[in-house]
Amino acid sequence: MPTKSIFLKRLLIWRYKHVSEKNFIFLLSLIIGLLAGLISVFIKNITFAIEAIFEKGIILSENSIYFILPIVGLFLVYLFVKYISKQPSEHAIPSILFALSKRDGIINKKKIYYPLITAPLTVGFGGSVGLLGPAIASASALSSNFSRLLHIDRKTRSLLIACAAAGAIASIFKSPIAAIIFAIEVFSLDLTFASLLPLLMASVSSVITSYFFLGDSVLFEFSVSDKFVIKDTLFYILLGIGTGVASIYFSKIYFGVTSIFNRFKSARQKLIVGGLAIGVMLFFIPPLYGEGFGFINNLLIGNDIEALGNTPFDSHLDNIWIVIGLLFGITIFKAIAMTTTFAAGGTGGIIIPTLVMGSALGNVVAKVINNCGLGFNVSEANFTLIGMAGLIAGVLHAPLTAIFLIAEITGGYQLFVPLMITASMSFIINKNGLDHTIYTKELLEKGALLTQNKDKSVLTLMKLDSVIEQNFVELHPDMTLGEMLKNGVSKSNRNLFPVTDNEKNFIGIILLDNIRSVMFDQTLYNSTTVETFMQKPPEIIYYEEDSMEKVMKKFQRSKAWNLPVIRDDKYYGFVSKSKLLTAYRRELINFTS
């Protein structure tokens, strides 16, 4: 046995003898938080190093060729994917949620380091996406494989993956409370002491790691100078409505642009079309370049001209309505640029682009209110911040995450009331307009979506294979009654028989009750066939299509005790209601314990 395996075995034996399960989870959450913090620091520093090379090399706007850089970055990612990883990039959160629901929280170990390469290439060269998603993806993959190495069960492994995600957010934003709430809202964790304390420990561990390597610098240089006043309530409601509509637009653009690029047959075609589209957008709208933190910070300190950068409209920026129009253009095109970067093969996240779009929209709303000629005056900096919360609440369906993220970024809770007004309004509008988010729509279609609804989550975690029974004797339609009794009934302990043809195509079923009255009438043994007694099942389960929730609904509708399963258009087996309910009860106990 290899030395490594012997050491690991001894370590696990020692742990079982001396460390309780609860304390072991606490220890692992601290380690996971530390590792997530290191990953976040690494991915940020690599990206900033790439950006610094271009800035020092005077490649950016001074030479007016900065808009070419994202194409170069996407091309490098394309080469990496084609010749090294040989796996297309996946969106971080949906892929993690799918692993939690359908793969027992097991994530390919290669996903630990792939995002650490492709994300800096995408963002460092100016791709209009964020680094948070890749940091979460890498940290979650590390947590998953670390848990497998230590033989952690599925439920605890899922919790530690959520700890990794919370750690990455806490490290990048230095906002541990928002990180915990994000894990609860997006990963649909139960808010219990058993889950809350590990998340808290992971977040704190990650934040301390970030402070150790990056100091006390923050993403947004801001302190609240204009407090909330009651007369501005209507304007914050208006902002909530605006961010709610904008979040619906954000999601619609995401799915629309993605569907357009899905029509292209090859990754090379996507790269060429997407790269050119991004280049054109950057040429006319420079703030779309990169993550956009500089843009947000300039808006927060009121430096609109610096935020907009060099544009074809520089000579007209003394007109406030031109500035408003350009900022609104950023609101419109940020979602397009972000999705195009993804569709062209880039790697990144949607959370930071959402913040950029929200900041632009919030600033636009404030400027319109202040310059409409009605004598109103609101804080543009506050609206910029709260616009970010509104977009996050709507796009992610995570209002509490949005509220606490911005509250922690500002270093206080002076804006807590307007944050609640805008975030809740945005969430309500988006929730009524779209049932599911960018993260969850595809998972819902696959039947792989975990929610706060325990019944649905348990059904999602269940696997159809675990309840399929195949110990049924197959009959053929041309078999005589005598052959059926001799080769079927006498050799089976079941009261149900599938009828198939020679190619295993499913034709129907025979119940023992259907032949009970004639099974001892020997005069019918050679004159009647299986086809005489065959009937159609009340419902059919399709292996490739039906989720466990659909299977349960088919049993409820049909009131049947057994339903046949078809796989690849062939008979595959039966699911019994008793086995299904037993498996459901067992999974529910594991899920809630």
UniProtKB/TrEMBL annotation:
The keyword Membrane applies. It is a multi-pass membrane protein. PROSITE patterns: CBS. It comes from the Bacteria. Keywords: CBS domain, Chloride, Chloride channel, Ion channel, Ion transport, Membrane, Transmembrane, Transmembrane helix, Transport. It is found in: Membrane. Residues 468-528, 534-593 form the CBS domain. InterPro entries: CBS_dom (IPR000644), CBS_dom_sf (IPR046342), Cl-channel_core (IPR014743), ClC (IPR001807), ClC-type_chloride_channel (IPR050368). Pfam families: CBS (PF00571), Voltage_CLC (PF00654). The chain crosses the membrane at residues 24-43, 63-81, 112-139, 159-184, 191-213, 233-250, 271-289, 320-337, 349-369, 381-406. PANTHER family: CHLORIDE CHANNEL PROTEIN CLC-E. This is Chloride channel protein. It comes from Winogradskyella poriferorum.
